[in-house]
Amino acid sequence: MSLTTREGWQATRERASTLRATAVRILLGGQPGLVVFLGTLVFAGLSWRVGVFITDTYTLANAFASLSEGGFAVEGAVYGDSLETPGMGVRDGRYYGRNYGQLVVSLPALWLLEASTMVADPGLVFAAGWSLLVVALGREAGRLVERPALGTSAGAVCGLVGFLGNAAVARPLADRMLALAAMQLTALVVTALAAATLYRLLARIHGDRVGLVAAAVMVVATPVGFWASVPKRHAFTIALVLSVWYAFYRSRSQSTAETGSALSPLGFRALAYGLVGLTTWLHAGEAFGLFVALVVVDLPTAPSNDRRSLAVVAAVFALSLVPFLLTNAAVSGDPLRPPRMLEGFSEVGTSGEFGGADPASSTGADGLVKSLTELALPPAFVGPVHAGIDRWSVLMSPFFRGTLRVVENPEAVYRTVVRGGYIPGTAPENNYETTDLTVLEAGPLVAAVVAIGVSTLRRGVRGFRTGRPLSASVRAALDRWRTSSGTATDVLVLLTAVSVFLLYVQKLPTHAQVTARYLLVFYPAAVYGIVRSWPLRRALTGHGRTALWAWSGGVLLGAQLFVVVVAAGSLGLGEAFQVHALAGLSVALVLALFAATGPFTDSFDRLTALFAGLAGALGTDFLLLSGLVYFQYGQYVLPALGEFARLLPSV
Amino acid sequence: MDRSRGLSAVAVTVILGVTLASGPAVGLVDLTQPRFDPGNIGQGNATVSEVRTPATVQLKQGLETESYYLETPDAGIRVTAIQGRPTVAYKLAIPSMGYSRGTTHFLGPDDTGWVSLSLARDTLPGDRVSASSYEGTLSVTLRYNGTERVLSERPVTVEVVE
Fold this sequence. Notes:
The structure holds two protein chains of two kinds.
Chain A: H1 3-28, H2 31-46, E1 49-50, H3 56-67, E2 73-74, E3 89-91, E4 94-96, H4 100-119, H5 122-144, H6 148-168, H7 178-206, H8 208-221, H9 234-253, H10 265-282, H11 284-301, H12 307-320, H13 322-332, E5 343-344, H14 364-376, H15 379-408, H16 410-417, H17 439-442, H18 450-465, H19 470-483, H20 485-505, H21 522-532, H22 534-542, H23 544-568, H24 573-597, H25 605-630, E6 635-636, H26 639-647
Antiparallel strand pairs in A: 1-6, 2-4, 3-4, 3-5
Helix pairs in contact in A: 1-2, 2-5, 2-7, 2-8, 3-4, 4-7, 5-6, 7-8, 7-9, 8-21, 9-10, 9-11, 9-20, 10-11, 10-12, 10-13, 11-20, 14-15, 15-16, 15-20, 18-24, 19-20, 20-21, 22-25, 23-25, 24-25
Chain B: H1 2-21, E1 44-52, E2 56-61, E3 68-71, E4 75-84, E5 87-94, E6 99-106, E7 113-117, E8 122-124, E9 133-144, E10 147-161
């Protein structure tokens, strides 16, 4: 090799590595974000089965198969034996899917899989990919902890052993499964991006270490990991919501002097709205909830609402709605009518009613407003104004109905968030199994957020005692939102959770939730809240080792204990779920009690950390058991895990 | 550092090499052979000398639920000779509840001697269970070459356990 070509080679390599570093920085927030990304893929890959977990996945998968042939209408049932599946819409005798944003984004994964299965066996290609990710994870994690040789070697050995083990027991995978697998692969990647985004957000506020741990906790110890390989919208919702939070934070925090940033603060503000706009393409209702939360926090706290800023934000937002509007026009014929509003077959399920109000009767306020306009306006204006009120009330009515539901039917809320158990209304659709866990049962770590409520209350009471007038307190709070990007983001996170909750609570509790999946956004919000709460941060950073040991013990011993209990008690699926539910709730209760003392004293910090570790471990145990024992469907992409699962007892 | 890099290169080479070598383009080896050939399931025959079925079946109220689990103990058949891949269905029927459910087992050339047959657990809503016991029937049916032969059909007591 001559000197000049060697130099040329060197220069190309350097350029490539600079390019790679830039891409990693912009997409994942640098080296730690890359480790989070790879780690999430490796972890979620463990329980990935190519198959249909919930029947409405047939709708999405068949729509995706047709979309890959170039059309929005669903032409045939590639999966299942009928097109009349939950969530399928009908217009002019043709069938249409929904969540088209998710489907379009999944296309590149299908192309990738189709290309790689030209040269590789479909039954082996996923195991090979996963093993290469392990090699990469070892290398990047080694660099991160400054033990590059150890990390690289460990990654190489684990990747190689994992690959050979899987190759030894590999089974064929039918080519027609590739479309479904592509949707799952995309959901996995999107979950990994979501985890990296949570890392970025919290690393900016509290440092790399805290960000890393928070991202790992969200993936490994909450149901976010459960939905990573299920090709539904939930992973996408989480990723978009986290990205909106992150963009919003950056739109407030960045000083103009900061270098190396890809966007200006105004750019990030516009990005936040753009991401909300893209969310409409996934699920218009969730997007609207996110939009309301963002507007309510953004407009009063923005550094500037001058004409230029608003024009930029509005332009980006309008642009981001284009895919949604075009898809609607193609599917329903009306740009403002998303596929979900088509007539469908999905009306099989009813929510579990606890004698709640008739939803139709709770929008009576509109009628009053309409009568007033008829009195006050000339007849020519009444029509358009009423149309406007109709649209507005259609948009806002979920919030009204949600609030009414909370007031009139607190039991429904309790059954969704705290204790589920047997719910007569949802039992038939769940095959009479108690397989729906509540937010706390599935992710007991969420209980720690009571510390936030207690410390807020304590501050309020103190303010009241010092005799400061209420208006001054409110003004001080508003000032804090405006000046502190962290506080403004806290409010956004809280409002997002509230808004999603109000949108869905009227439908809850309902069947096939497994982990209260409609409220999945609670988990990243709770992890964020735990990190942002100063007493919890003090307890968990001060006693991190205790939490880690408790978590490790709870996973190593606890997972085996669950397997033994399921086998020894010969438990049915619903019974096994209730064991998780009761164990989760017990730990959640104790954790909540200790966490609530945090704002007053640090004496219980170690116990708080201990129970937070245990609560995390119960979340992990549920992921492990449901990945290997509780649900047997489809084919594991890592065939060795399929073999391992066969050795375990079944429910 | 260099040794770990070498190891990494070896791992990547092996992973990619094996995957490509077994892929459709190269096709040196086929690592993904099916576990069993589904083509001839139901073809063949078997000689069964003895059938054991349980005398009672439990309909047990589940933990933290109003539903009942129907748990049927395994049955056993003694196979003295087998050709091909016949199937055996193990079925529980409770006529007074309008209930019936069976599980089909695939037999293979190695299945001689006592072979145990399981019946998948089922869940019944609480309002379907009103009596303290039900009369049912447990049957074991051999299917081969498109015909079927009832090996055993016996009454069974379904005990309701609260």
